[in-house]
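Worked problem 6 (solution included).
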Amino acid sequence: MTKGKLMIYFTSDLHIDHIRLLKFGYHPFECSAKGCAQSNEFIRQHYTATVKPEDFVFFLGDLAFCNSQNKDRIKQFIRSLPGHKVLIKGNHDRNNTCFYLDCGFLSVVKGLKFGDYYLCHFSLTADDVYDHEHHTYVQHFKESHCSTLIHGHVHSHAVTAEDGIRRINVCVDYPPNHFSPVRIDGFPEDEVEHYFKTLLSGKTCS
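Solution. The predicted structure is:
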């Protein structure tokens, strides 16, 4: 790795402060307030061991379980994570855009295209019809003419759909990701760098 080189990372489904998630075994902690706090810190440690302040990070949804009691805690947690961050919303990201911008995200969107890669929370398989906008997401992907989908949502499960789409699961709890943000070989870095620099300059990205 070249010293000082900006890195691009992807992560998804952190589910910060989501106690109920722990009962499904996706994160290796007991389903309790103590286990939830341990899970939060576990995620933070893996993230900060990987990402530097100058790096670019795409969060592909299901950031946190947020309510009126823990909003400030969620904000503090996300702000503590280094890197220039963009959120691609998932089905659990139900707060308004201003909340996520206040968490430190530069932009909040439902999908993004870079070269031959489309970024979306959902895996867009026939059996992944969780969100009422599923067909809209599928249509956007088709219109993008991309062959590769970077996604979250399915946690530790591998997607085996035989529909010609190359899928990359960036969920923290997908075993190959080791609870850390990941890099993707071949991703168009020049496009991403331009995208983030435009956001950081305060201009609008088309």
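Discussion: Residues 33-48 form the longest helix (16 residues).
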